[in-house]
Every structure is written in structure tokens, then in C-alpha cells.
Amino acid sequence: MVKTIDAIIAVLLLIPLVALLAIPMYNSINPKLGGISFFYWYQILWMPLSAILYYVAAVLWHGKEKNEERKLKKSSRRKTGRRS
Amino acid sequence: MIDLLSILIFLVLFVIFVFLGFYGARWRKGDLTKLKEWGLAGGRLGTFLGWFLLGADIYTAYTFIAVPSSLFAKGAIYFFAAPYVIITYAFAMWAMPKFWKIANEHGYVTMADFVKGVFNSRLLAVSIALVGIVAELPYIALQIVGMQAVLIALLHGFGAVQTIIEFSLIISFIILAAFTWTSGLRGATLSGILKDALILVSVVAIIVAAITIGSFHTAFTNASATAIHYFQLPSSLYNAYWSLFVFSALALYLYPHVVNASLAQKSADSVRKTASLLPLYSIGLAFLAMFGFLIYGVPAALSYVRSFPASVQGTQVVPGLILTMLPSWLSGAALLGVFIGGLVPAAIMAIAAANLFTRNIAKEIKPKMTDKEETRTAQIFAVVFKFLALGFVFLIPATYAIQLQLFGGILILQVLPSFIFGMITKKLNRRALFFGLLTGVVSGIYMMEAANSYASWTTTLIGTGLGPVFIGMIALAINIIIVLVGTYIANAMNITNALPESIPS
User: Fold this and answer.
1) CATH fold for the domain made of B4-415
2) Nearest Cβ partner of B279 from A36, A50, A59?
């Protein structure tokens, strides 16, 4: 379960990188948007998209950390319980 | 338009800004004579204020002056700054919360503290601190160039061009030195809010003006007639483009001032959430960058820019558009935004460098410093480092100011193996890390000089079998190879990083 979440977070963080490394794919003048060549607006479009993906990743990450903390507390409680 | 009204508004707002800077020193009162208070705002910033602080840190004269300037001079290749300020935050979201937790647990305030703790090497820690300080200097120099560019625009009608250029540089430097002396990071935070407000107003105003005039189309036609590749990359520069943005992205969160800003936040989670939203700030950067060719749609601005010598032309792109497209009251405010967009980050960088010097170099020499001595040392060296930074201003033609930041990047990238790999594994050999760092820095400087034929710096790309690529990538690769080979040899010879305390007596 934890591993699936790790993979999802990694994918969310890596999507923008892959999209921006694909230079030959977006290195063109057309289609233009409001007079701006595709090369520019494609990369600008990735700014809001990345913020969304990154924020979702941050929220998932926070949830994951809270889960881990809870498990740690539980296991330490169990240990102390056995001892007493 | 530039007239007395715009200059008056510039001055009035500047006074308000300076007042906020001084007031900031008393805001959320802590003991300012303590170094940690002076440098890290007492570690009490939440997500919202932290977001502003990071914005003030990262969106600087680099964004307002250097990027549009280089795009104007060299074309689309310098739009690498846009993907750079997207993917750097993915790296930050991974590395910075990790570091925040480690720092919080062990009481580390700097990257060098961490390196000293993990690898138990004073030599390595001091070297890391030194590279961190030196890497900040060209970045500070870039901010000074930005401040100078604004003053040139404000004063250009009052005298001979060359005199105005030199006078503007001196005034910028004096203001910067005085500003840093008086208040630490807290002042910079409060003023950062005013700065961001001003910048946002000016960016929105100028984009709206550009769209209503419809000059994107005119700009496209006129700029296409030039020999510069403005609208797409020549395929020979693909490797240059990605190496510039990937390795700039890795470099940003290694700079001491950026590490400081991350540590100043409330929790590891707020570090991560703040970083995740920062690509939204980047939209403004992208538009400012495009002003580098948008200026071809505004003949008055273009002829203003061309009235300057080529060595400063580029720096006048954004000021020129502000002067020609905005009403005079708004242009005064917008120019001030750009001016303090250089001033605040320069102060923050100088403070970070001074902090690092005091904590990880001066205290190694004189371990028993009182809190007061520490703060005084940091204050004095913040000013010293600004003088050293001024030296870098003379290494480049102002139009190519972006090379200062890229050169800082080449240097700071060399701390990556110790800092980032150090958070993942403790198996690397400290001597190998030191020699990797040393070779990375030396080879970086050598390639920089070679690529520019030992003259004024206009590029950070060097020709390879794969076409031109960013020097920072090659220097880091050399560094990492030495670290790995060195560690392998050390392991084969049974040399470890053993702590002195753990040696059986």
C-alpha cells in the first residue's frame, strides 16, 4: 500500500520533467496562441499544470507521513503494553 | 513615460519600503543580537508568509532584467529559465523537507553543519561553506546589475549615458550596503510583501497593455526579420537547453540563501506545500522573459533600448517597456518593484553568505564567540561580501548578466554530492568528496574561462561532441566520478569516516 503511494508521488513529480525534456516535440512555431509560438505557450501551460500535480503530490505525501507516524506510535504502544 | 511624477512616486514608495524594512527589525520581537534571530527570522514563518519569502528570494533581478536581457540578445535558448523554475520545485519537494527534518533533529542551521555532522570532516565542512559563499557573490552581482539598470532608466535624461551608467552603479551599491546592515531577514520578509505586490501590479499592467495594443503579432513579424532565433530553438541547441534547465534546477536549492529560507519555515510539510505552489509564480517569469522579443512590437521602446551601448542594451528591455507603455505614475511604481526586486534578494544572499562565514569558518578559527561577537562578525562580512560581489559586476557586459547566475550555479552544483548524496547514504568517503568538490570547482572555472576565450563572460556553454552544453553539468559529472572512484579505492584500502570518539581507546 505504502509502495503504491510512493510510486504515485514519484510519477506526479516526474510528469512535468518528462513533458519538458521532450524538446523536439514542442519546439515549433505553430500552432500559435495569441501570437505566441507553440514553443512558448506549451512550456507556460506546464506551469499551472505542474503546480496542480505537485500540490496533489504534497497532499498525498503529508497523508503518507501521518500514516507512518501513527503506525510508529501504535507499535511503540504495543511494545510498552507487553512490557507492563 | 518618464517624468518628475514617476520619479517622485518611485522615491515616495522607496521611503515607505525602507520604513517597512526598519520596522521589520522590531516585528514579532525576538532578540536581534542573536545570529539565528538575525538570519533566520527566528524560525517562525508559516506557509503563507513563507510563500512570500520564497517568492522574494527566487524572483529577482534574474527574472526582471537578466532573463529578458539574454533572450533579447540571444533568442529562445534563454527561455530555459521557464522549465527551470518548474522542475526545480519537484527537486525541492523531495530534498528540502528531508533536510528540514534532519536539521531540526540535530540543530543544524547550515548545509556545512550537516556535512560536518555526517562526514565528520572539518575540511569538507569549511570547503562547502566557502563554495557556498563564493557562489553567492556572482548572484549578488547580478542583483546589483538589476538595480543599476533601473536607475539608468530613471536617470537617463539627466546626463551623458556613460556617466549615468557609472553613477547608477555606485548609488545601487551604497543603498544595498546600508539596507543589509540595519535589519536581518525579517525586514526583508516584510518588504518582500510590498515588493511582490508592486511586481504583480507591474507585470499585469504591462501584459494587459501589450495585449490591448496587439503588439504580440507585430513583435512576431518584426522579430522574425532578425537573424536571432526568437521563436524556436535551432536543433543544435537541444542539449544546451535541457542541460541548462535541468542543472539550474538542481543548483537552486543548494544556494545557502534558499536553504535558509526553507529552514525558516514552520514544518517539513509547509516546506513541501510551499514549493509545490511556486510554479504559479513562474508564469510571471515566462511573460517577463518574452518581453525580450515582445519589445519588437513597441518601436518607441526598441529605439529607447538601442540608444544604449550594446553592453547594457538588454538590461533596458523591461525598464524600456515600463517607460513607454505605462502611464508615468504606474511606471514609477513598476520601476521601484524591479529595483527592490534586486535589493531584497541581494540583501538576503549577503546575509546567508555572512551567516555561513560566521558559523562555519570564523567559529572554526575562534570557537568561543559571544552571541554579540557572532552577530557583529556576520554584519561586517555581509558588507565585505558585497564589495567582493561588486568585482564580479566588472567581469561581464551587463546584457549577459544571466551568466553571473549560471556561473554561481556551476560552483554551487559542486556541493551536491556531499549535501544531497549525504542525505541518502553515509558510505561516501570524505576525502573523495573533498577532492571531487575541488576538481569540480577548478574544472568549472577553467571551462568557463576557456569557453569565453579568457575574455569578458558571455556564455556558460561549452562545445562538446554533443554540441554546446552547460558547463555546470560537465563539472558536476567530473566531481561525481571522482567521489565514486575515490570511495571505491578508500573502501578497498579500508579507510573509513570513523568518528574519533568511536575509536576504541
Assistant:
1) Sodium/glucose cotransporter (1.20.1730)
2) A50
Please report, in tens digits, the pLDDT of each residue of chain A (84 residues total): 558 888 999 999 999 999 999 999 999 988 988 778 899 999 999 999 999 999 999 999 988 888 888 888 887 776 665 544
Residue in B with minimal Cα distance to A46: B86
Q: Which three cell numbers stand for residue B408?
A: 554561481
Q: Do A47 and B279 touch (CB under 8 A)?
A: yes
Q: For chain A, which residues make up each domain, given as ranges?
A: 2-83
pLDDT tens digits, one per residue of B413-434: 999 999 999 999 888 899 999 9
Contacts of range B24-33, beta carbons closer than 8 Å, 24 or more positions apart = B24/B183, B24/B186, B24/B187, B24/B188, B24/B189, B24/B190, B24/B191, B25/B182, B25/B183, B25/B184, B25/B186, B25/B187, B27/B186, B27/B190, B28/B186, B32/B184, B32/B375, B33/B371, B33/B372, B33/B375
Among residues B195, B199, B151, B141, the alpha carbon closest in space to that of B172 is found at B151
Q: Cβ contacts of residue A27 below 8 Å, gap of 6+?
A: A39, B232, B233, B235, B238
Q: Do B269 and A62 touch (CB under 8 A)?
A: yes
All residues of chain A having their beta carbon less than 8 Å from the beta carbon of residue B232 are 27-29, 37, 39
Is B217 or B497 the better-scoring residue by pLDDT?
Answer: B217
How remote is the C-alpha of A39 from its chain's centroid? 24
DSSP per residue over A29-79, as a string? SPSPBTTB-HHHHHHHHHHHHHHHHHHHHHHHHHHHHHHHHHHHHHHHHHH
Q: If you average pLDDT over residues B84-107, what whole number do you get?
A: 93
Strand residue runs (E) in B394-502: 461-464, 467-470
pTM for the whole thing?
0.89
Measured N-to-C along each axis, helices B47-58 and B328-357 cross at an angle, to the nearest 10 degrees, of 100
3-class SS of residue A27:
coil
Contact A27 B282 (CB under 8 A): no
- Tally the C-alpha atoms within 13 A of residue B443's C-alpha that lie toward its C-beta: 21
Q: Are B358 and B110 in contact (CB under 8 A)?
A: no
- Residues B319 and B338 sit within 8 Å (Cβ to Cβ): yes
Q: What are phi and psi of B460, to 5 degrees?
A: -120, 20
Burial of A32: CB neighbours in 10 Å, binned 0-12, 13-18, 19+: middle
Is the Cβ pair A44, B245 closer than 8 Å? no
